[in-house]
């Protein structure tokens, strides 16, 4: 039940009092449940005796994997062997009093364990049961194994991305797992919707979340273009060279364009028919980039950025992640949170800030099975 005490401390978070049973591993599921923990929910991570495989992924420090910590801080960990009747029985005891369950096994695994929604809804009618999988719980591919790189390929994302590169001969390498990040955010939103609905109806429900659906949903222009293809090239934003690197300039509006032409010393661009309409600008995009680059290549990226931004033209120099996390803007907005008691490091907070409720990465990073005895005592009372 969501607490309605108006006087409770904001540090407890908007989901204080909500109990989450977390059957997730790797990234999409753990990031979803970490968001719930950031909001103050009591997230109990169910782990096998071997633990989540990400516990062994670099970077490794004295406290363990910081990669694991970034996705699992703020949770409690209990070891349950779900191959045994005792383990499954304990899981059911935990679920009986839970508000939310999140799992990201391949479809069918939880059913074989006797822990699928249809069986658990009888045990706990208020349970919100979120299943995150590569291809969803239904459809011809539902049983197929999938990780984010497979979804990037399957959804059309990789070939769409390749199509925007002028010099690519093969699809891009994968290192940033967009499908997992999108899946975690969509999962968090879906759980909150179901929680809101439960406040009205008193009933839980199941959530079927497909990473494929999430990525396809991000291809907004591409889905329309696939249905209504055109011979005209699409305007693609490209980096332009500076004297010491690259900058991205995105002058979208007519006002932006007029200001840009003044800055780069081409005021006649404001009446140049090549750039007078959206269609004309798209047809002459390469020429526009050349005009911009003739100016930027003579100046450092930082100067280009500050000049354009001061005039209201969207622009950024290219930063490494190491540079970005040290940026004064990031520091002032408290985008990063220091966690880890004896070996501190930073993780990224949620991307939104509530004016009254606290959403923050919790410092606790659970050791494998650290809270097993504590949690077992709670359900025995």
Automatic annotation (TrEMBL):
UniProt entry tagged with the keyword Kinase: no
Gene3D superfamilies with a match to the protein in the record: Crotonobetainyl-coa:carnitine coa-transferase, domain 1, formyl-coa transferase, domain 3
Taxonomic path: Bacteria, Pseudomonadati, Pseudomonadota, Betaproteobacteria, Burkholderiales
Name by which UniProt lists this protein: Carnitine dehydratase
Pfam families per the UniProt record, alphabetical: CoA_transf_3
Top-level taxon in the UniProt lineage: Bacteria
PANTHER family: SUCCINATE--HYDROXYMETHYLGLUTARATE COA-TRANSFERASE (PTHR48207:SF3)
GO MF, one annotated term: CoA-transferase activity
Keywords noted in UniProt: Transferase
Organism, as annotated: Advenella kashmirensis W13003
